[in-house]
Amino acid sequence: MRHYLTCLVLFVACTPNVVFESSDLQINASDADSTHARLCVTDQGGVYAVWADARDGTDAIWLTRSLDRGETFEAPIRVSHGQARSLSPELACASPRDATGIAEDAVYVVWEDTRDSELENRNIYFQRSVDAGATWLDMDLAVSPDPEGRNMHLGPRVVAGNNEVYVTWFDGRAGAFDVYVQGSTTRAETWNDPVRLDGDATGAGYSAWPDIASDGEGHCYVAWEDSRDGASDIYVAATGNGGFSFSEGQRLDLGPDVNGTADAPGSHDSFRPRIATLGSSVAVAWHDERFGPARDILMSVSTDHGVAWYDEAVRVESNQPGFYDSINPAVGLVDNPASSGPQTVVQVAWQDARADAYDVFHRRVPEIDSVEETRLDTGSAGGGQSLNVEVATEGSTVVVAWEDRRDDSGEGYNDLYYNVSTDAGETWLATDLRLDSIAPGTSFATDLTVDLLDGEIYALWVDGRNGSADVYFQRLPVGEAAEFERVPAP
What we know:
This protein is mostly beta strands. It has a single domain (26-448), classed as Prolyl oligopeptidase, N-terminal domain (Methylamine Dehydrogenase, Chain H, 7 Propeller). It has no helices and 35 strands. The strands form nine sheets. A four-stranded antiparallel sheet has the order 3-34-33-32, with no helix packed on it. A four-stranded antiparallel sheet has the order 4-5-6-7, with no helix packed on it. It has a four-stranded antiparallel sheet with strand order 8-9-10-11, with no helix packed on it. The chain is globular and about 65 Å long. Residues 1-15 have low confidence and may be disordered.
């Protein structure tokens, strides 16, 4: 792999003239602060990145692409056409094949947009390219139907596969927030009617922050927070017909509370569901307050395309319930052909404060009762905050990546680390690896997203090393660390 070099000059008392040669690649090509960077990679090796920045005077959605697996990136293009603020983009891409068997990347972008409202209420807008990002629709498509911008529409997520694309969001058109999803089986040429997923009276209870997963073969799943009964519960709904209809939402946060009695609907808050799918298996993980003053990680799994789920949610950690704060899970599924049992193995990673500061832990299912969790950040336990975990999977390989403050000098800086398993999460590296290429503890890095393709890690994040918030990219072979060199200044 060929690395591009960016140079950062740091003036330090003991080394006054040192240049750090970095293999990270800055791709936003602007001094304007960038936010909410997102990445997707296709089987064809197309790499696409989006973010929001105000280089033209107002926040807009920008995209750049690489058609050579991240070796080079083209100049960014503006995807959103509105003159108001465009924010919080999300991205999905796929490589569908046409009738002759030729595959070409399709790229889909959704975001929150204030163009319809004098009060800066947000609607959800959409753009797409079916020629690998070369051309886009002449006009942005309004997904959420509120042309006068009277209500707030938030939290868009998008997934794609083959000819399918699905968008989910939540909005307040009827009062309290409801969760909607809309699907297309024609690469967004035509759309099915939007489907409201929360099953109480429209606008009666707060339902929000959906996450979405699809297998690209007609099955799509959405999980969300739902307060129809009081405190927030976790619900999921599924489709097997390309999004024309969805099943009635099922509550997943079932089971006993700290007193050993059944946790009635709306009794305790459950937040931030994350969902993933592989084959006929679907997994949802979230953090939950039922066991005490600190939160725990719970999850549920379906092995039949989201029809049946666990009778009771499973607690992922093995330590004392409700005593140490565990939050923000990430989830993935991998194949494990060497297994004598189920070949699809669920991977859950989260940030865990059992050693005071947050560390990153991992556990795999179905071995929840026989194998304890593994700490993946291999610095001293609780020695620095390890936050905002992401999971990427390919075959039997699992990568867990996170933001890490072990080298913070008190300036609020952090670095990016990852750990990897090549045997479906059974064993991990004894030492975690740097994902960004810069001197430790000298900048901030956030908005990390990661993907895997052919044994390589693709990573994107927002980085402050140049004094502004820029978008950086890195590609590494699995198991290698990003490196930088200290060389004398010319």
